[in-house]
Amino acid sequence: MSAEIRRFTGHADPYRGGDPYADYRAADPPFAHWTDLADRRLGGAVLAAGDEFFAERENLLVPGPARFDPEHFGHKGKVMDGWETRRRRGGDAAAPHPADDDHDWALVRLGLPGIVRGVVVDTAHFRGNHPESVAVEATAADPAASADELLADDVKWTELVPRTEVGGHAANAFAVDSGRRFTHLRLVQYPDGGIARLRVHGEAVPDPAWLAALGTFDVAALEHGGRVEDASNRFYSSPENTIRPGRSQQMNDGWETSRRRDRGHDWVRYALAEHSVIRAVEIDTGCLKGNAAGWAALYVLDAGDGTDPADHGAPGWREILPRTRLQPDTVHRFAPPAGHPATHARIDIFPDGGIARLRLHGSLTAAGAERLAARHRELTG
User: Fold this and answer.
1) Where do runs of H (alpha helix) occur along 93-172?
2) 254: nearest Cα among 239, 233, 266
3) Adjacent-strand bridge partners of 120
4) Are 204 and 39 within 8 A, CB to CB?
5) 156, 140 in Cβ contact below 8 A?
6) Torsions phi, psi for 377 (to 5 deg)
7) Do the Cβ atoms of 351 and 260 come closer than 8 Å?
8) What's the CA gap between 175 and 118, in Å, rounded?
9) What is the 3-state secondary structure (H, E, C) of 66-111?
């Protein structure tokens, strides 16, 4: 476990009114820049739980922070925005306490199979009713496997987070060094209690057989192994939104920068799924109306020659879309010049503003497909 991650234990103080997050114990883990592989919007799901008496398991993967309404009670008690189980008890009056190994569990399918870099078990608003400790296990299986199949005795689970004491009303973060590709996680809490959110940060590792069957696909998309390496500005919303599935549904479901008061411009740099050739480009400014970027230009780089992608002035960067006027709330489509294999792409926007989605449709080169398949074999054993 990384020494950089602040640890939390024990209860938080009872809620006494006002902003419920005022005394929340937050964390800033070094793995937070990786994609949340369990994100519901990417296909993540909580398939089953051993108990969910007070609050449903599905709340674990809801995007955004947990909410708290101190006046909201239901037929079973306080309604919480998280997963909460009933209190465990011992077998009889002589032994009223749960056994040391008594626990509850939730089974999670990752939206994007991949390498787990870190886990956040968030107990926001669970102050005196959070678990004493938690553990996280992972396995690699058919992404469509049922809960019964995953819970069979012959399924091998790998420990990602050993049983560790956690704190209430806190973001309990754990760095993970697994080196394997996983499809499912099992979250275990001892002996019972509530967890608001589960975040599983990591690197997506797509199935090369599926990409080969597709032939042409979005080589920048999160689901195909693309990722954001860096961006000039993340003030209003994350640049990672630009490579999420589907169209943007509202303004903050894209990438939007603060307003520039200088003569510069903003940009996002992407690592592609692997060595690729881009054949078609879509720049979507959906839901961005008075704040869309005014113009955009697109560049690609083949970093196989040793060029540092962070050096935007390097001669290896090639322009495939010159500075082009964008319209608000519009899908723009372009067919760039062919013949520029690339490992990275960069979109520059002028002078500021935002885009909702960027689609780079293309296909892997033979070398890219071979490397992707070799890595997949290595990570799956």
Assistant:
1) 147-150
2) 239
3) 173, 199
4) no
5) no
6) -60, -40
7) yes
8) 4
9) CCCCCCCEECCEECCCCEECCCCCCCECCECCCCCCCCEEEEEEEE
- Is-contact 54 194, C-beta < 8 A? yes
Longest dimension (CA), the chain: 79
Tokens 């190994």, residue located: 101
Question: What's the full length of the chain, in residues?
Answer: 381
End-to-end, the C-alpha distance of the chain in Å comes to: 24
Tell me if 163 sits within 8 A of 190, measured CB to CB. yes
Q: pLDDT of 309-318, one tens digit each?
A: 999 999 999 9
Q: Is 173 helix (H, G, I), strand (E, B) or coil?
A: strand
Query: What's the pLDDT tens digit per position in 240-259?
Result: 999 999 999 999 999 999 99
Q: What is the pLDDT of residues 68-83, one digit of tens each?
A: 999 999 999 899 999 9
DSSP labels for 332-343? EEE-PPS---EE
Q: Is residue 157 within 8 Å of residue 102, measured between CB atoms?
A: no
* Phi (first) and psi of residue 138, to 5 degrees: -140, 155
Q: How far apart are CA 378 and CA 245, in angstroms?
A: 27
Tokens encoding 221: 């998309």
pTM: 0.93
Question: Residue 188: which residues within 8 A CB-CB, separation 6 or more?
Answer: 103, 104, 105, 134, 135, 136, 137, 163
DSSP string, 6-37: PP--BPPPPP-SS-TTTT-B----TTTTSEET
Q: Collapse the DSSP code of 307 into the 3-class scheme (helix H, G, I; strand E, B; otherwise coil) and give the result.
A: coil
Whole-number Å distance between alpha carbons of 43 and 227: 17
Name the residue among 343, 333, 221, 208 with its Cα closest to residue 271: 343
Closest CA to 39 of 111, 109, 90, 137: 111
Ranges assigned E (strand) in 326-374: 331-334, 342-350, 354-355, 357-364
Closest CA to 285 of 317, 253, 310, 316: 253
Residue 143: HSE in the Cβ half-sphere, 13 Å Cα cutoff: 16
Dump pLDDT digits (tens) for 258-281.
999 999 999 999 999 999 999 999
DSSP single-letter state for residue 252 = G
Backbone angles phi, psi at 110, to 5 degrees: -70, 140
